[in-house]
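thoughts on my protein:
***
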Amino acid sequence: MTLLPRPVSFTRGEGEYRSDDAVRPRIRVTSGPPEGYRLTVTPSEVDIEASDEAGVFYAWQTIKQLLGPDALRAAPIHDEQWVLPACTVVDHPRFAWRGCMIDVARHFLPKHDLLRYVDLLAAHKLNVLHLHLTDDQGWRFEVQKYPRLTEVGGWRPTSRYGDRRAKLSTDRPHGGYYTQNDLREIVEYAARRHVTVVPEIDVPGHSQAAIAAYPELGTDGGGVWTDWGVNPRVLNDKSSTLDFYRDVFDELMDVFVSPVIGFGGDEAPGGDGEFVRQIAKHLVRRGRRPYGWDEVVEAGPLPTGTVVASWRGVDGGLVALRDGHDVVMCPESSVYLDYRQSSSPDEPIPVGTVLSLEDVYAFEPVPRSVTGSEPGRVLGAQANLWTEHLDSARRLDYAAFPRLAAFAEVVWSPPEKDPGFLERLTAHHLPRLDALGVEYRPLSGPHPWQTMPGVPGFPR
């Protein structure tokens, strides 16, 4: 089978469907699993039966995959007939949350590049784009009530060059932010591709950009951070600071229609757990579901409906499940795509543990210790792209692909692994990435122009 992700079942029929014009399938709405579809191709017609609009959309993605790499190009490059093999594909996703987090705070990703990534996620049948919009190194969300958040917090005078322990700097300013209308555009663009954009404003840690703009939010001031790592400065616990962030989240919720809103809660040395709980309660009062990293389970009782992202392994997620919270699995050992892809010295800015393509494909989102009797549910999983060392779309492509394709198969397909995965990837999917213009890492190692000699990393 040549599709990524794998369908639940695939039956090859006799003959081929050929068309000199665009493929025009007959579409019917039927009962079935959410986002599921049945695609039938005969020599005379193409038929889609789907349970919802998302299912129709994913059937179209499968049609593009069956047509071959050129179907994924931005414009036709030949006048030949479109040919589909006669077949029946019955398909639906394993998980409802099939996500990718992109950190646009450490390095800003311009709007056109972000829209391109929405297309790439949709082509891989991923349906959640988690945007990490704020951190110590930059604030990327326009807040009309507090304009200094972007005027001051939206840029920094320099950045670390490689790993922070080398103490090298670029001596080059970096910045950027999205207007609210930019983000409304991104949200609508994604929705038309059945991708939900989940925004995150991180509190009470990772907040130095906000403190630089409004020093009264912190305890000892300071500018936008130019270093990487965990900043000991956090938000103070004053009621005025809580009111400030209620205003920020109110504007965020006016822009983003997602039922889930991220509020961070991670890596906050000495941070106030009550602050985290109050923000979560505010989100619930506004009819949204709070979404925090797994440290939030240590902050005390969280509101019903809170979703927990388990990144420090799976233990935080297991605690959250037992506490009745839904969980998104994203353990750093399996799905942190900024981590180095091999032990080769040619890997650019090698950080973290080795996380190969095979390692990502081996990931199982539901830990063996989950019995199914827990009051919480594993909603799915997401891959995370932190961008301290990914300062451009080209660097993002290198880190993400083809590992993100492997992840997409994991969260869509049944848990059994396909021994033919690498063969399918090499023969069929890498040419699709070529057609899409993705500058992925070759399986044999980086191209010479993808290496970064002399830029220090910190391999573990």
Summary: The chain has a mean pLDDT of 96. The chain has two domains: 9-91, 97-416+436-442. Residues 97-416+436-442 form a domain with the TIM Barrel fold (CATH 3.20.20.80). The first helix runs from residue 53 to 67.
